[in-house]
Each structure stands twice: as structure tokens, then as C-alpha cells.
């Protein structure tokens, strides 16, 4: 680990020296996998100091790579602007978000962060700083968006913003009694943002039941809650206890999901702030500590339209194998971003959290990989720590165009990670 930030010249010298086990940049460390780990090599964290250059009239912001979404929202929201893509935690950095080409609850209509990125400042494998734009070098730009940091170290990003008149959201929630009803409601949702919580443990007539949440920005400021106009002030989150055991078993996971479903109103509308709508897991700092010392695995995949049966098969498998799936999130996806290793594509995305200590889990996930790949789907690399090279090639390619762009940007193969070695994306 190289304690950053280091100056651009020092960073360029490190990259140009071509260390044998390579270099990788690290954002906030919120990836669930090994994308920013580099055994016996260099990991630079943070890559830069936080920095924000807001251009309100142009509706854009240039942010240094290590700037968090919390810092960005605090800077742009008072100007009546907001980031067009908000991932599930506000603690991500903008550099990490671009490297993973993150999506939010509005991917179906607004795409991933790739659709809103105007420029990426990239330190390439020769130690030179490039300015990548959609029109300047489309292949390099598309390879870097979603490229998991393997085309270079992202130094800064320029993003287009969208205007808002309030920092509050109009939200509607509806409880659906089975998977068919949940899928139909999510497909028919016409709000800008839509996501469904799914009961991953329900069986019989209740199989796949869940709660659909849709929302959009208020058309104007709330005079009572926003007397001075829109602002972003996330509350301080209490620290989660580090439990010495995993509380989730098949029985407790079923009880947790059942309670969560029953306490949800059949139908409800209301107003929510940005944090409670977009970043619910951030309400508890270090929430993963409460899962126990072995942690958790999140399995997130996307399958094309018409492959809804894969969702059924995955849920049935993790139930049958007693994987204690305690949290599930379902989204409807729209067009792909064009990023050469980007995750989303038209269809359905399901994410399931399961305790990592189950000795059967590895074999179960290998089985699910085969099911997803047969349907033409893929697993989200930002959430992955165990996908095989063969499964990756079947899902993503093999990614010849991405590899060609990487070879041009990094001809000596400086940028490496444990994920890259596992998936055959780097030479060593």
C-alpha cells in the first residue's frame, strides 16, 4: 500500500518504473471484491486530495478522483444541481464510481455514470496524463469507464449535472404479493427512480414478494423543511457493532424478511430526503460488521429481457441450498452504457446478500454463474471476488476490444490487481 495522496510527478515516476507486480489505484474501498487489491504490488490510496470545481452555469463539475459523493452532493445541491447517478452509498469516490461505471435507481432511463461523463483525466502506463473524452478517443474512453482501474489511474472526472429545485423526494411505496406482481409493477413504473426490495426467503404463493419504491425530485423547495433552499446535510450515522458471530441462519433470514414485508404498508406516499431514499445502508456506519467476522457475499447479476425465469431459479437455488439470503434488491435496467466492461444491459438485475461462512456457497455461486451465463447475463465485477476466468469470458467476451485499448494505454502492463489476475485481464 502506498499512502497517498502523492504528487502527480511521484505517481508518474512510480508508474513509469514498471514494478513487477504492478500498480492499482484505490478509491474508498467500497467494492465488495478484489478490484483494488494487489498482492505483492502497489496500491495507491488515496490517489488525490479531494477537490471540486463547480461550473453552475455550464451545469458541470470537475472533481478530483478521491472526492466522495458526500462531498460532491454538499457542494452542488445548494446550487440547484445534483449528480445524475447516485449509487447505493454516498461514501464512494468519483474515481472509483467511473472505474466501475456505477448505476443507480434510475439506470433504466438515465443510464450509468458513463452517460454523464464528459472528460476523464487518466495517468496512463507510460506515466503520461491523458484527457479522455467521448469524441477524442472513444475506445480508450469506453475502456476506462467500467475498466476497474486497469487502463490507468483516474486523476479527475468532469460530470454533467441535472437541475433540481429541492433536495427532497416525492416517494411512493407499494407492497406486492408475489414475484409476478413485483416484476410487472417494476416494469410499469414510470417515475425517474425505481427499485424493489424482494423477500429472498418467501416460498409457495408468496414466492418473490416484495416492496416497490418509486420516487422523483420535488418540483419546488419545501418552504417548511427548506426555508433557505436545497441543501445536503446527511445525518451522523451510529457505528454498527462488530458481532463475533453471524446472526443470519436460514431461519433468522426468513424471520427478518417476513417481518420486513409485514411492517411495510400496503401502499404509502410521502416525502423523503436524499439520504433516506438513495443511501439507506449508510444509516448505520460499517453495517457489514454486524454480519459477523466472516462477512458477506453479494451476488449481483443482470439477465436480458425475457429471462425472468433465471430470477426464479436463483432464488430457488439459494433457498434450497440454505444460503440464508437475508437481503435482496431488484431493478429494471435499460440500455447498456457502451463501456467495454460495464455491467448493466437491458433486462433485470438482482442482488442478493448472503453470509460468507457457508461452506456450500462457492459451489452454489458457480452453479448460478452457469445459469446466468446461459441466459446471456453477467455478474457485476464491482461486487465480485470469486468469478472464474472461464465464466467471465462467457459473460463478458472475451473482451478483445477492451484488451486492445488497454494494451495501447498500458503497453507494459503496469496496472494490475488481484481481480485482473484472477480473470486473465493482465499478463502476470
Sum up the overall morphology in one term.
Answer: globular
Low-confidence blocks of residues: none
**Overall mean confidence score, pLDDT:** 96
Biggest beta sheet attributes: 8 strands, antiparallel
Number of domains: 2
Class from helix and strand fractions: alpha+beta
CATH architecture label of the largest domain: 2-Layer Sandwich
Explain this structure to me?
It is a single chain. With 428 residues, the chain is an alpha+beta fold. It is 27% helix and 23% strand. 47% of the residues are buried. The protein has two domains: 2-163 and 398-423, Uridine Diphospho-n-acetylenolpyruvylglucosamine Reductase, domain 3, CATH 3.30.465.10; 168-390, Alpha-Beta Plaits (2-Layer Sandwich). It has helices spanning 8-16, 69-76, 94-100, 107-110, 138-144, 179-188, 250-263, 274-278, 308-320, 361-374, 389-396, 400-409, 418-423, and strands spanning 2-3, 23-25, 42-45, 52-55, 60-64, 81-82, 117-123, 129-132, 153-160, 162-163, 168-176, 193-198, 210-217, 267-273, 296-303, 327-333, 347-355, 378-379. It has an eight-stranded antiparallel beta sheet with strand order 14-11-13-12-16-17-15-18. Strands 4-5-9-7-8 form a five-stranded antiparallel beta sheet. α5 crosses α12 (400-409). A hairpin with a 5-residue loop joins β7 and β8.
Amino acid at each position: 500500500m502506498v499512502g497517498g495522496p502523492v504528487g502527480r510527478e511521484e505517481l508518474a515516476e512510480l508508474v513509469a518504473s514498471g514494478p513487477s507486480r504492478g500498480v492499482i489505484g484505490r478509491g474508498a474501498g467500497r467494492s465488495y471484491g478484489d478490484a483494488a487489491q494487489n498482492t505483492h504490488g502497489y496500491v495507491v490510496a488515496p490517489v488525490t486530495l479531494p477537490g471540486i470545481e463547480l461550473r453552475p452555469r455550464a451545469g458541470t463539475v470537475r472533481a478530483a478522483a478521491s472526492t466522495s459523493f458526500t462531498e460532491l452532493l454538499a457542494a452542488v445541491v445548494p446550487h440547484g444541481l445534483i449528480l445524475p447517478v447516485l449509487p447505493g452509498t454516498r461514501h464512494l469516490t468519483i474515481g472509483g464510481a467511473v472505474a466501475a461505471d456505477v448505476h443507480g435507481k434510475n439506470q433504466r432511463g438515465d443510464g450509468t455514470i458513463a452517460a454523464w461523463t464528459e472528460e476523464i483525466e487518466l495517468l496512463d502506463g507510460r506515466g503520461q496524463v491523458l484527457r479522455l473524452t467521448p469524441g477524442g478517443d472513444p475506445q480508450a474512453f469506453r475502456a476506462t469507464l467500467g475498466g476497474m482501474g486497469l487502463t490507468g489511474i483516474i486523476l479527475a472526472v468532469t460530470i454533467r449535472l441535472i437541475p433540481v429545485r429541492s433536495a427532497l423526494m416525492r416517494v411512493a411505496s407499494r407492497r406486492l404479493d408475489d414475484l409476478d406482481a413485483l416484476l410487472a409493477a417494476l416494469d410499469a413504473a414510470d417515475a425517474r427512480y425505481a427499485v424493489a426490495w424482494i423477500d429472498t426467503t418467501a416460498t409457495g404463493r408468496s414466492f418473490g414478494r416484495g416492496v416497490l419504491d418509486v420516487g422523483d425530485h420535488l418540483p419546488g423547495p419545501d418552504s417548511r423543511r427548506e426555508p433557505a433552499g436545497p441543501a445536503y446535510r446527511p445525518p451522523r450515522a451510529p457505528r454498527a457493532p462488530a458481532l463475533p458471530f453471524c446472526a443470519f441462519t436460514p431461519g433468522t433470514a426468513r424471520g427478518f424478511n417476513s417481518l420486513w414485508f409485514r411492517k411495510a404498508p400496503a401502499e404509502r406516499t410521502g416525502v423523503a430526503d436524499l439520504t433516506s431514499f438513495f443511501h439507506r445502508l449508510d444509516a448505520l456506519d460499517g453495517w457489514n460488521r454486524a454480519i459477523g467476522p466472516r462477512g458477506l457475499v453479494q451476488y449481483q447479476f443482470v439477465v436480458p429481457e425475457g429471462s425472468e425465469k433465471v430470477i426464479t431459479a436463483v432464488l430457488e437455488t439459494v433457498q434450497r441450498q440454505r444460503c440464508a439470503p437475508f437481503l435482496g434488491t431488484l431493478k429494471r435496467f435499460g440500455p447498456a452504457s457502451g463501456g467495454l466492461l460495464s455491467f448493466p444491459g437491458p433486462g433485470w438485475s438482482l442482488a442478493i446478500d448472503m453470509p460468507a461462512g457457508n461452506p456450500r456457497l462457492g459451489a452454489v455461486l458457480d452453479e448460478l454463474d452457469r445459469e446466468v451465463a446461459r441466459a446471456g447475463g453477467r455478474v457485476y465485477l464491482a461486487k465480485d471476488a470469486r468469478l472464474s476466468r472461464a465464466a467471465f469470458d462467457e459473460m463478458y467476451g472475451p473482451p478483445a476490444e477492451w484488451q486492445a485499448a488497454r494494451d495501447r494505454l498500458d503497453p507494459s502492463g503496469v496496472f494490475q490487481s488481484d481481480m485482473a489476475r484472477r480473470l486473465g485481464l493482465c499478463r502476470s
